[in-house]
Design a protein that fits this description.
single chain, mainly alpha, three-stranded antiparallel beta sheet, 6 strands, about 50% helix, rod-shaped
C-alpha cells in the first residue's frame, strides 16, 4: 500500500494496555483496528481518486484495505488495482507499468472468468504489453490535449480543472497528482503567453481593418473629421479592440496620407486637363491668339474640361 499522512496510535491511546488488560480480564477479545471494517471510511481526494482512512489508527491508504475487499478483489494476484473516480466510475491502474485504463484489463477478466475465450494468446499479450502512451512526452501531450479538448481556461484553478477532466482517461496519462498539477501549471503559463500573442495579433488586424474601412467610407474627403468617422465605424468588431487615442491617431495619419494622395492626383489630372484645353483653344474656330480672355471664357462656358479647371488654372493655361 502507498500510505500518506499515516499515524499509528501510540501506547496509551485508543487501545491502551490498561484497557486491554481490563477487557481480557472479562473475556473480551481485542480487535485489531487495521483489520476492523468499521474503523475504515472511504473518501475522495482533490484529484478525484478514492482513498481510505482508519479513524482509530489515523492511517490513510490509496489501496482498499483487505477487510473491505470483496471475494473477487481478494483473488486479484495481478499488478492491477481498481479505483473509482469522484462520480463512482471504475478505472484500473498498474503501478508497475504506470498505466491507467477505463476498461478492465485482460488479466483481471481472466481471474473473474470474463475473458473472451476466442481471443488468441498472442492478441492478449500484445494488448497487455503495449501501453497507450509509450514515452513521457506522449503522456504529457495526451494530458495537454485533454485540457484543450475539455475547454479548460488558463484562468482556472487546478481544483476546477481536475473536476472538469477527471472522467477523461487522459487525466491518468500522468501517474501522480503532483505530475498532473505541475503539467497543468506549465500549460497555464504557455496558454497565457499564447493568448497574449493572439491578442496582439488581433489588435494588429483590427488596425488594418480600421484603415481599410476608412478607405471604403462613402463620406471620405480631405475635410473629414475623426468624430464623423467614429460614428460611422463604432459598431464594427475591430473598433472596440483599439483604444480611443490610438483610433484618433490612426485616423489623422490616414487623413494626412489621403490628402497627400489627393493633391498628387489633382496635380496629375490638372496637367492632363491643361493639355486638353490648349488643344481646344487651337481647334476652336472662334478662338485665336488675339482673342480676349473674357471672350474665351464665354465661348467655353459649358465645356466640361474647361469647367474642371479653377479660374486661375484656366487663365494660366491661356497665357
Amino acid at each position: 500500500s502507498s500510505h500518506f499522512g499515516s499515524k499509528v496510535a501510540a501506547p496509551g491511546e485508543p487501545w491502551s494496555r490498561r484497557a486491554g488488560s481490563r477487557r481480557r480480564s472479562v473475556g473480551v477479545e481485542m480487535v485489531d483496528p487495521a483489520t476492523d471494517p468499521k474503523a475504515w471510511t472511504e473518501h475522495t481526494h482533490t484529484d478525484g481518486r478514492r482513498y481510505y482512512y482508519n479513524k482509530q489508527t489515523k492511517a490513510s491508504s490509496w489501496d482498499k484495505p483487505e477487510c473491505l475487499k470483496s471475494q473477487e478483489e481478494k483473488m486479484n494476484t495481478t499488478s492491477w488495482k481498481e479505483y473509482k473516480t469522484a462520480d463512482g466510475r471504475d478505472y484500473f491502474y498498474n503501478p508497475v507499468t504506470k498505466q491507467s485504463v477505463w476498461e478492465m484489463p485482460i488479466e483481471l477478466k481472466r481471474l473473474r472468468g470474463m475473458a473472451n475465450q476466442e481471443e488468441s494468446d498472442e492478441e492478449q499479450e500484445q494488448k497487455e504489453e503495449e501501453p497507450e502512451w509509450k514515452t513521457p512526452e506522449e503522456r504529457r501531450n495526451a494530458f495537454r490535449e485533454m485540457l484543450q479538448d475539455k475547454g479548460v481556461k488558463a484562468s482556472m484553478k487546478w481544483e476546477e480543472a481536475a473536476k472538469l477532466c477527471q472522467e477523461d482517461r487522459r487525466f491518468f496519462a500522468l501517474n501522480t497528482a503532483g505530475e498532473r498539477k505541475q503539467e497543468f501549471a506549465v500549460w497555464v503559463t504557455q496558454s497565457k503567453k499564447r493568448e497574449k500573442e493572439e491578442e496582439r495579433e488581433k489588435r494588429k488586424r483590427a488596425k488594418d481593418e480600421f484603415v481599410e474601412a476608412l478607405n471604403e467610407w462613402p463620406d471620405l474627403k480631405v475635410t473629414a473629421r475623426y468624430k464623423d468617422a467614429a460614428e460611422y465605424l463604432m459598431d464594427r468588431d475591430f473598433f472596440k479592440l483599439i483604444d480611443e487615442d490610438e483610433r484618433d491617431e490612426l485616423f489623422q495619419d490616414f487623413l494626412d496620407e489621403f490628402e497627400k494622395k489627393a493633391k498628387d492626383e489633382r496635380r496629375r489630372k490638372r496637367k492632363e486637363k491643361v493639355e486638353m484645353v490648349k488643344k481646344i483653344y487651337a481647334d476652336h474656330d472662334e478662338i485665336s491668339v488675339t482673342s480676349k480672355w473674357r471672350d474665351v471664357q464665354e465661348l467655353l462656358h459649358d465645356n466640361e474640361t474647361f469647367k474642371w479647371l479653377s479660374k486661375l488654372e484656366a487663365l494660366t493655361s491661356w497665357e
